[in-house]
Design brief:
- The protein is about 55% helix and about 5% strand.
- The chain is mainly α.
- The protein folds into 3 domains: about 100 residues, no CATH class; about 100 residues, no CATH class; about 170 residues, no CATH class.
- The chain has a 6-stranded mixed beta sheet, with helices on one face.
- Helix 4 crosses helix 7, helix 11 packs across helix 12 and helix 15 packs across helix 16.
């Protein structure tokens, strides 16, 4: 009976042990609740574990071998791949500058650069060191050796990247001159150098020199027996001045009715007439006096109504000259006034020459009212305009707007205010802008109804201005 009971209890224990929750990862050692494990089961379990372990080791070895093979293959592939050589002259090829193209061609062909010490000992040849694109049309024979020599020097001393470094190009050019044993400097500002180097240059049968900067293009048939260098200052100051003037017009909301985004085409004609002109139907400008170029640009943008010629010409001169966007204009005035100061005009003035009398009187009036002659950017163009207009009226020595209109258009002018000169019209416009505001001046121009805008007509405004001019002077 006891044996039956014991057997029964053992059976219950085995059954209960088989109902226990099994963990997710069962332990490898003996199962719980099983004390009497047969030798056969143990051997089977051992064989299974050994086989599993062997399989795992085989898998690990296979993975390791695969990884090693992959790494070896990758290394072999890396070793077999030849890196494409970088082009040290990529920026030179992309620059578009003609002198760099000539220099690179000489370098790649192994051509030896010339020693140009004797050439540059003559200071008149310094202009060839500018190496702007149009020089290769003007004088290729002299420009190419300079390009080759400068290229070779900069590359050997500073490296390929320095060839297109516009910020330091003036410095490199001076260093080149020093390397020749010359105690000379390349005199150019960084701003002008960078600007002129950016030109787009072309040529055709009619115009040998077509020079563009963005939307501004200049057409030269030749350089009037001069040198391209004579126009470098004009190209820089007129173009940058035009951009500044347009920004000013926009910022002040004075651009209503003006096409400030147009393309500007300057035909440098120098036909001897002394007057520049703009063809209103096309906006093309024909320039005889480089200092009138911004004046003509205002016409090209849309100031073309001539019922009140004093308004249209006065506005163009006011924006194009009197606000100082082209410093070369102020510099030219300073030069004339300094000559008057130093007595260059005394003999002719004493002999009764009214042009020289005019220069002396403008100098005296300008300096008497505190005008400075030190720098172009501090020259008082507003004061100068008033003093000049007064001197013209006092001496009765000036050409009228009507005179200029007849020369340019080959017909008489029949317009209000055509008895004034350019400077007088400019002084009148400036006075009205100071007194009533430029908004009213522009409104009067656009409507051509001066009396409605100002509450008085042209003659009354002119009398008002003359009273101001006499009192100020």
């Amino acid at each position: 009976m006891k044996k039956i009971v014991i057997a029964f209890l053992l059976l219950i224990t085995v059954l209960l042990g088989s109902c226990v929750n099994t963990p997710q990862e069962p332990p490898i050692d003996e199962p719980q609740g099983t004390e009497n494990v047969t030798e056969e089961n143990t051997e089977n379990a051992t064989e299974e574990n050994t086989e599993n372990a062997a399989e795992e080791e085989t898998e690990e070895e296979t993975e390791e071998e695969t990884e090693e093979e992959t790494e070896e293959e990758t290394e072999e592939e890396t070793e077999n791949v030849t890196e494409a050589p970088t082009d040290p002259f990529a920026s030179v090829r992309a620059s578009g500058e003609e002198w760099l193209s000539w220099g690179l061609a000489a370098h790649e062909s192994g051509k030896q650069a010339e020693n140009l010490k004797e050439f540059f000992s003559n200071r008149t040849n310094m202009t060839y060191l500018t190496l702007y694109d149009h020089f290769f049309t003007y004088d290729k024979e002299k420009s190419v050796p300079v390009a080759e020599a400068l290229f070779a020097f900069i590359y050997s001393e500073y490296g390929a990247e320095a060839l297109t470094d516009l910020d330091r190009r003036c410095e490199y050019k001076t260093a080149y001159l020093k390397s020749l044993g010359l105690d000379m400097e390349y005199v150019q500002t960084k701003e002008v150098e960078s600007f002129l180097a950016s030109m787009d240059f072309s040529s055709n049968e009619t115009y040998q020199y077509i020079i563009s900067f963005d939307n501004v293009t200049y057409y030269f048939k030749d350089f009037s027996a001069g040198s391209p260098a004579q126009y470098h200052g004009f190209l820089y100051h007129n173009t940058t001045g035009l951009f500044e003037m347009i920004e000013y017009l926009k910022a002040q909301d004075f651009d209503e009715g003006l096409d400030t985004e147009r393309a500007f085409h300057y035909y440098m004609t120098f036909d001897g007439s002394g007057y520049s002109k703009t063809v209103y139907t096309t906006g093309n400008m024909y320039i005889n006096d480089s200092y009138s170029a911004l004046h003509e640009a205002v016409h090209a943008m849309g100031i073309t109504k001539h019922d009140n010629i004093w308004l249209s010409e006065g506005l163009c001169n006011y924006f194009g000259k009197s606000l100082g966007f082209n410093e070369q204009i102020a510099a030219s005035y300073i030069q004339i006034l300094m000559m008057a100061k130093q007595g260059y005009f005394d003999a002719q003035a004493s002999a009764g020459n009214k042009q020289y009398l005019l220069c002396k009187q403008v100098y005296e009036g300008y300096t008497a009212r505190g005008g400075s002659l030190d720098l172009a950017n501090t020259f008082d163009l507003r004061l100068y305009t008033d003093v000049f207009a007064k001197a013209e009226l006092d001496l009765n020595v000036y050409k009228t707007l009507g005179d200029a209109y007849k020369i340019v258009n080959n017909k008489d002018c029949d317009s209000i205010g055509d008895e004034l000169s350019y400077e007088q019209a400019t002084s009148l416009v400036a006075y009205l802008a100071d007194t009533y505001g430029m908004e009213k001046v522009l409104e009067a121009y656009h409507t051509q109804d001066v009396e409605s805008v100002f509450g008085k007509g042209y003659e009354a405004l002119k009398a008002e201005w003359l009273t101001y001019l006499n009192a100020e002077n």
